[in-house]
TrEMBL record:
One of its GO terms (molecular function) is DNA binding. Residues 149-214 form the HTH luxR-type domain. The keyword Phosphoprotein applies. Residues 4-125 form the Response regulatory domain. The modification 4-aspartylphosphate is found at residue 55. Keywords: DNA-binding, Phosphoprotein, Transcription, Transcription regulation. It comes from Pseudonocardia autotrophica. It comes from the Bacteria. SUPFAM superfamilies: C-terminal effector domain of the bipartite response regulators, CheY-like. This is Transcriptional regulatory protein DevR (DosR). One of its GO terms (biological process) is phosphorelay signal transduction system.
Length: 223
């Protein structure tokens, strides 16, 4: 069965372009497209979609409505996946989106709307309870890091911080092991220690905890 999708975007042109892309995929069923948070809330109540694709800023406040919608869905409709689209890199929003226990979330830059394959993969991933973080968000934040003194990373050892930095650059455990000339088990142990020191719940999905750890790192080291 096709995934039922609600799209929320206040710009008419972007909303209609997004609708056209979603309509072009036979595996997606766009059941509603709306321009505001209150209309998104009504559409979710009426249609019970599998996935919501939403702009991060919408009327009435044009602030963080997309994140608020994701938080409300986590409480009231936890099985509904959410893809949040943002014009800019916003680490604080990303951290709110990927709160512990909030599965089925994606954070993409809005320019991804034109890439149907990327958008489709994100929709499919969150519908299945997965997590997606735009690689350009990671790249931009890593490039902008300035090493703040007051940091949640202060409790990490030098080696743990090295491991986390490489994870934030997108390296797999095996690639981290090769770069640092460590064994796979040593890298796994360091990552487990990082999760614990950053307060990431052991009950969360491993991929979700990895994304949260990266977000904490990027938030703490970006200017």
């Amino acid at each position: 069965m096709a995934l039922r999708v609600v799209a929320a975007e206040d710009s008419y042109l972007i909303r209609e372009g997004l609708a056209a892309l979603l309509h072009a995929d036979p595996e997606l069923d766009l059941v509603a497209r709306v321009p505001t948070l209150p209309e998104l809330q009504r559409a979710v109540a009426d249609h019970r979609p599998d996935v919501v694709v939403t702009d991060v800023r919408m009327p009435p406040g044009l602030r963080d409505e997309g994140i608020r919608a994701a938080e409300e869905l986590a409480a009231g409709h936890p099985s509904t996946g959410v893809v949040v689209l943002s014009q800019y890199v916003e680490p604080d929003w990303a951290l709110r989106l990927f709160t512990p226990g909030a599965a089925g979330r994606a954070y993409l830059l809005k320019e991804r709307i034109g890439d149907l394959d990327t958008l489709r993969r994100a929709i499919g991933a969150v519908a299945a309870g997965g997590t997606v973080l735009d690689p350009q968000v990671v790249e931009a934040l890593v490039a902008a890091r300035s090493g703040r003194a007051a940091s949640p990373l202060a409790g990490l050892t030098g080696r743990e911080r090295e491991v986390l930095e490489l994870v934030a650059e997108g390296l797999s455990n095996g690639a981290v092991a090769d770069r640092l000339r460590l064994g796979d088990r040593a890298v796994e142990k360091h990552i487990t220690n990082v999760f614990g020191k950053l307060g990431l719940e052991s009950g969360d999905d491993a991929v979700h905890r990895r994304v949260r750890a990266v977000l904490v790192y990027l938030s703490a080291t970006s200017g």
